[in-house]
Amino acid sequence: MMILRKKMNYIVGLLLLAFSVLTYADNVPPDVLVKNTTVDVTTILKRDKAVLLNDSQKLYALIDAKVLPHFDFNQMTMLAVGRYWRQATPVQQQSLIKEFRTLLVRTYANALAEFNNQVIEFKPFNMAANATDATVQTQVKQPGAQPIPIDYSMEKTDAGWKVYDVSIDGVSLVTNYRSSFATEIRNSGIDGLIHTLAGRNQQNAPTKPATTK
């Protein structure tokens, strides 16, 4: 389980960056959105990785500004919480969205440290003209290892195409969290899950880089 979690954190963090450049992508098809940004993002990582990793606040700010707008965190949180979502009060739902969003930001930031110029390939994509849901299939190639398939589940919204799940080597990110969230809720209730997520996020809160005199 730990190996799977590390692989998911690493790959999700890497691949989600493919959405960080096109801020105004309302009318861009989902596959084009991913393809057109990959080269640009790779360039950014090569150029700024050392600086960003030395200042986690800048790294988190970059992710918050460039990556997160392309994800539907309301939908992702609702799917991750599963059947317990309807039991949550509106206040609890907003807290769950906030903490889950923060958790994923921390995950993506930590995963960036593992980026090492892997190659991203895209599988043929077909979508009906009036489709509102699509899956973009890719794979990550790295020397000495089997390619890792990555599937992006996306939905068309008024603000353009948004990601609501990522499957890594056949394992859904949302489903993976749903299992652990359900266990936490059964043991400690919805407030217990919120408390656990908040505590984890607090532990991993960004720190300012050390200054030299």
From TrEMBL:
Q: Tell me which positions the record assigns to the signal sequence.
A: 1-25
What InterPro entries does the record point to? MlaC/ttg2D (IPR008869)
Keywords, alphabetical: Signal
Q: Which domain of life is it from?
A: Bacteria
Q: What PANTHER family would the database entry show?
A: INTERMEMBRANE PHOSPHOLIPID TRANSPORT SYSTEM BINDING PROTEIN MLAC
| Record protein name field | Exported protein
Natural source organism: Sulfuriferula nivalis
